[in-house]
Amino acid sequence: MNLQSRNQQVAALGHTVYDVAIIGGGINGACLYHHLCARGYSVLLLDKGDFGGGTSQASAMMIWGGLLYLRNWDVRTVRRLCVSRDRMMRDLGEWVEPRRFRYLPLKSGGRSKTLVRGALYLYWLLGGCSRSLPRRQNDFDEQAFLKREQFAASLTYEEACVAPSDARFVLSWLLAHRGPQQVALNHCALEGGVHDRGDRRWTLEVKDSLTHTEHRVHARWVVNAAGVWTDAVNQRFGIETPCKHLLSKGAWIGIKRHPNHHDPLLFDTTNNGDSMSLIPWGPIALWGPTETIVEAPEGGFATQPDDIRFLLDELNRHLRQPLTPADVVSLRCGVRPLVVERSFQHNGHSLDLSRRHRICRDRDRPWISVFGGKLTNCVGLANEVARLISAVCAPTRVPPPRHECRRRWPIATEDPERTMYPTLAERFPSARWCAEHEMCRRLEDYLRRRTNIAQWVPRGGLGAQGEHRAQLAEIAQAFSQYGDDSARAQVAAYEEQIQACFDDVLAAC
Length: 509
Known about the structure:
There is one protein chain. The protein has helices spanning about 5-10, 25-40, 75-90, 115-125, 165-170, 230-235, 305-315, 380-390, 430-435, 445-450, 455, 470-475, 485-505; strands at about 15-25, 45, 60-65, 95-105, 135, 155-160, 180-185, 190-195, 200-210, 215-225, 245-255, 265-270, 275-280, 285-290, 290-295, 330-340, 355-360, 365-370, 420, 430. It has 3 domains: about 5-55 and about 170-240 and about 360-405, FAD/NAD(P)-binding domain; about 65-165 and about 245-345, D-Amino Acid Oxidase, Chain A, domain 2, CATH 3.30.9.10; about 420-505, no CATH class. Strands 3, 4, 5, 6, 11, 12, 13, 14, 15 and 16 form a 10-stranded mixed β-sheet that branches. Helix 2 crosses helix 8. Helix content is about 25%, strand content about 25%. It is an alpha+beta fold.
């Protein structure tokens, strides 16, 4: 979509009364958008940043059955997540693929090996015995870079992961539905609004940060799927709910992937009875996450020197060759929204809380709030909200642009124009293609979410010595039409961001 067509789309917002306005373009909002559009609803989705730009871009990319919840005997949640995982693997094979995981118990200390093995068999049973049977394995390729002498035999089991990234998985739910009455807009912030009981509709104040224009849009229902910002949005509109979010920060580091690293590895940590993962992803491996309670979302999306020191200390316990901050390729940090009762007072560790979801409908106004949720159960959550809306609001019956959109699952993007990036073997969708076909508006959108460049190439794609500046300037040309900055200015601003969020953080370690 070029600038002219986007401006026309934004200018036309006030001429449609949408059945549903969704606030938030993370996995919950995007999946719900797809399901409502497929049912014929006129839907507007708004995100103040880029799609999948919050928690949804900082996951482990796992579609899992909730193995760790067995520590609290939350069997019901594990069973539900296992069913969701297996259904997504069956119906969404182009996005979700099976993956063998390897748990490495310590020879001395740590969890009981007998207990862990029993838990893995119980997990397999709760998954309907549909995944590979857990196995004990003494020899495996990853021993080449690990301190082999400190581990007992490994235990393998099967999960699933999204490909090629969590951010593109979010985007996939949005791309099939684009028309005058089914609109998804990034970089459009909800500023305020009121509900008219007489007209039975919301009037919402929206600000487009790309064109610096303000608009009024109308909707019969509003779904607040803003993730970690859900409570703040509700407070702005005077919406009260019986639950709230507890926010847990999770930081990861990306390091160069060892040639012998094929399977995700799980290790016990030194505190809280937690586990951490080393997950191969393209040319890097992700190590983490941390688990830290934070008071506000803004404080949780930035990696701190203490996070990196902790992660390196934990990782170096297991590696033959220890790593230093200079070996860190990328940083990845998100905030998990954990749903708790409004009166909840947290004094323990956030791992004690289940990653369940909860849907709250306002008593007086057509407003639904979504709390919690994760990649694995995004479809179940979307169906639950869609059924709730269907019970009280008939759809406009917008015809889908093509019959495939009636499917329950998103379709893969058309074969895009692809290009290379220095040091990477994989070909990526070109910046021009992403700008025209995938609602990519800014340089950072492209490097971080439409592609994996910012996570796979040091310093957000700039290179260790800034050697890829010219390449970034060429990419930035595709986005010059969406703002006032030239390609050179975009790169300069991006480099300042990398300096503050990557260089300065590592220098302080």
